[in-house]
Write a structure and sequence with these properties.
The complex is a heterodimer. By secondary structure, chain A is an alpha/beta fold. Chain A has 10 helices and 6 strands. Chain A has a 6-stranded parallel beta sheet, sandwiched between helices. In chain A, helix 3 (76-92) packs parallel to helix 8, helix 6 (168-177) packs parallel to helix 7 (189-198) and helix 8 (207-215) runs antiparallel to helix 9. By secondary structure, chain B is mostly helical. In chain B, 82% of the residues lie in helices and 0% in strands. Chain B has 9 helices and no strands. The chains are: A alpha/beta, B mainly alpha.
Amino acid sequence: MPLDDTTVRVYSIIFVAITAVLIFTARFFHARRSRRSTGQGAAGFERMPGWIGQGIETGRPLHLGFGGAAIGSEKTPIAAAEAEFFYHIIRATQSSDSAPLISTSSAATVPLAQDTIRRAWQGDPQWKQAQWYPQGDRSIAYAAGVSAMMGVDEPAGHVLAGSFGPELALMLNSAEQLGQGTLAVSDQLDGGAVAFAMADEVLIGEQMFSAAAHLSTDTTALADARVSDVWRGLLIIGLSILLLINLSAQLASVSGTLVLAAALGLLVVSALLFRRS
Amino acid sequence: MRRMGIAFSASVAFAVGVLTLISLLLGDHPELYGNVAGAEIWAGLLALPAAVLLRLVTLTVAVTIVIGIVNLLHVHAGRGLRRQFYSIVMIASFAFTMYWYLTRQGDTSLLAAVQVPIESALAALLFLSMAQGGARVMKKRADIWGLLFVTVMVIVLLGTLPLPALAPLREWSDWLMDIPVGAGARAILLGIALGTVVAGVRILLGQDRSYRG
């Protein structure tokens, strides 16, 4: 049964309020706790230290791509989350002679890219480090521009994290032919599939929001990732309960107690798996 | 002084973010106020900040295209001075297109004659890149997930062929697309939506790094 608009709005207010409380609570507890690990070796990040090291040794920059993640659109949170991710990558390349290059197909994201370099790079960043290739989602011109840049600037590696469609294939193919490493993640399903098939390292879906937590010693990034984990866990539990209720309604011979026991068992197994991860 | 600046920008971001959120959620919906007197007026007033701020955002985003063009010219002018061929072509094309557009009262035939065919050619190239990438999956991911990816890809591709002999495969292909692929896609989209909400709330509360300096 679909919910009416008023109920949806009330639920939205409650959801946003609880998320805000969770963010502050998680940050409070993580700030009191020392950082457990830097996340080195986490899936998807194995080769990044190699690219950073190669860039430092050879003086080649690292290329970071936002794709179509645009400030001022519904993709603003994605652009902000990737700016945080790029901030930590740039911090890790401080010893290099070349400041990283950031590309975007959204003109509105150019100031965010320049600001990220300014804040993270200790040296004297030049404005040309942030590069705009026109324009918008699934921009073939952006893919062509970045592919050309790969040959000219010869980056040590590419982190393409943001909003990409199938045009990602052109960039990943060019990088492969030039022997440059790639890590890719997209909020679009087709871009994600291309990334899985063609990138050296791949992050899936919501990992794009927790990527910063894997690279930094900043406890706030880890706290924000935990809030997402909490919501995801609650969502899985809710869906599992609904599934069991539906199943018990269809199979009259199965008793309610058995369903409850199965639900509790599922909950315990999920909690154990979550702790182990 | 710097700390004061950070505190000020974070406070402004927090105030504007919360105001916009409240305005979007509670504005223009008098039914949310129950039987409060003047609910219509309050709801109308509350909708105003979001309407004004969102219009301001639209205007600002439209203006940023100028930032993009200046950035593009700045980057390629620097490269052009280092005699990089593609950048010189880019600057020359930009100048010629501007001259064409201004002298021919907004004639966009150059766009149709040059830009569209080039983009179409690149889109065709994209298909080849994807086919090449698909063929290389097992080299990149020689594990169960790579094998699963290739198997599903082959079944779905064969299932789209209009051959009577492949009718059973078509049923498999439809089932794969409707059930496992549909479920996986929804799971990924739900994860992205949750991450977007957390990142969005963090920005609205002025907790993003760009406000913290």
